[in-house]
Design a protein that fits this description.
There is one protein chain. The protein is built from seven helices and 20 strands. The protein is of the alpha+beta class. Strands 6-7-5-15-16-17-14-18 form an eight-stranded mixed β-sheet, with helices on both faces. The protein is globular, with a radius of gyration of 21 Å. The structure holds flavin-adenine dinucleotide. The site of flavin-adenine dinucleotide (FAD) has 42 residues, from helix 1, strand 14 and strand 18. The site of flavin-adenine dinucleotide has 42 residues, from helix 1, strand 14 and strand 18.
């Protein structure tokens, strides 16, 4: 009988652990090695929004696979998915036309969504000001997942499937064997037949240990909580003011009865951050900017004030699509799963599925077309 390969996944964020789960489900022996603790990277700093309100058919296809997995975990009682809905705002007729096409594409993929004209938006968000808006698209089944809880569930699932998650076990060096690798870690040597680089914002550093060049730019993003004097008498869905790069980037959603979480989904600086040494707190100027945008879009929220803030890193590629697959096709045993940008919570299950396909089958057998996510020479370029 053929021995199952030992796959070592580097990084215990959502991408690494979803890859490990799919690998273990297909019979591989899996070890996840993590420099710090589970969820200590970008995954634990996310705001956890999951949605399908996209205007590109490939983005919707990816979410079809991802949602199937989230639904499975929900049905097994493993995952708490807060289905608060997702409202994406449009400012122009052209954006509304794209949303109209999206409603059709989503329906074909099995997702519910519908258009709202500007004068109907208050049915969803009674406090919204529709000034400057043409309307929006709303998906009632979208929502958010607590990213920390998700990571803990994923780590438990890896273990339940017979895999191992070794924390505080940073990869330090690599020796190639005739078949496989000797990985030098903080906790000794680990042997691997196949390696998956899922080290998020650190993925370029891990790639360099293998002599590869990977262009994933760590981009800093901030989030804040908005405290309310009294709970709203409705649930604030996820509201996003950004369509294909146009809009203020403001987004917000309910977190708890007295609390919203808000972000501005745009960055001022394209300078890559040092993932070991960046400011992980929200700056005062950003809080003021966010408060101004919120006052314009949702005036009169009862006693709204800015609460705690934090910052984390989006691992971003030049074309804002993740890298999934080998960087070098002549070395199919070294697979990359990184660069999910602002979508690494919602895309983790499908990225894990595709990465496992490359690792075990040498092509994306479960999702034809996913070759488009390979880190080819034309995609793997500085952003
Ligand atoms: C403020 C904010 C809000 C966000 N909101 C959303 C959202 O609403 N929805 C969404 O889908 N996404 C969101 N994201 C993006 C999402 O968090 C990321 O895309 C995702 O977490 C990336 O996961 P990852 O597994 O690639 O990386 P990480 O979670 O960073 O995991 C990589 C791991 O690799 C480890 N590692 C690094 N080097 C080594 C080494 N040498 N050896 C071993 N281990 C190593 C790190 O310690 C780390 O734990 C948000 C991000 C931020 C910062």
């Amino acid at each position: 009988m053929k021995k199952s390969p030992h796959v070592v996944v580097i990084g215990a964020g959502t991408l690494g652990m979803c890859t490990a789960i799919t690998l273990a489900e297909q019979g591989a022996s899996v070890t996840v090695i993590e420099a710090q603790a589970v969820a200590s990277g970008s995954s634990g700093r996310s705001v956890g929004v999951v949605g399908t309100q996209f205007t590109d058919p490939f983005e919707i296809l990816l979410r079809q696979h991802t949602m199937r997995q989230f639904r499975r975990w929900e049905a097994e009682g493993l995952l708490h998915f807060n289905h608060i809905g997702y409202l994406r705002l449009a400012r122009t007729g052209a954006q509304m036309a794209k949303f109209e096409a999206s409603v059709k594409m989503q329906a074909e993929a099995g997702f519910r969504s519908r258009l709202y004209q500007a004068d109907e938006l208050q049915q969803l968000v009674p406090h919204i000001s529709a000034d400057g808006l043409a309307g929006g698209i709303f998906g009632p089944d979208d929502g958010f997942i607590d990213p920390h809880q998700l990571c803990m569930m994923l780590a438990d699932k890896v273990r339940a499937l017979g895999g191992e998650v070794r924390q505080f076990c940073k990869l330090l060096g690599v020796t190639r064997k005739p078949a496989g690798y000797l990985l030098e870690t903080e906790k000794g040597i680990v042997e691997a037949d196949i390696v998956v680089n899922a080290a998020g914002a650190w993925a370029p550093r891990v790639a360099a240990l293998f002599g590869q060049v990977l262009h994933v730019r760590p981009e800093r993003h901030e989030a804040v909580t908005i405290l309310l004097d009294q709970p709203l008498d409705y649930t604030m869905p996820m509201v996003m003011d950004l369509v294909n790069g146009e809009g203020s980037g403001l987004n917000f959603r309910h977190e708890k009865p007295h609390e919203l979480v808000a972000e501005v989904h745009k960055v001022d600086s394209l300078e890559p951050e040092n993932p070991d040494l960046y400011n992980d707190q929200c700056e005062e100027d950003s809080k003021i900017h966010l408060a101004e945008l919120l006052l314009e879009r949702v005036p009169n929220l009862p006693g709204a004030r800015i609460g705690r803030g934090w910052a984390g890193l989006y691992p971003v590629t030049a074309d804002h699509r993740p890298f999934v697959g080998p960087v070098d096709m002549s070395e199919p045993t070294l697979v990359t799963a990184a660069g999910a940008g602002g979508y690494g919570i919602q895309l983790a299950p499908v990225i894990g599925q595709i990465a496992a396909d490359w690792a075990l089958h040498g092509s994306p057998v479960s999702l034809p077309g996913a070759e488009a996510l390979l880190p080819t020479a034309s995609r793997n370029v500085p952003g």
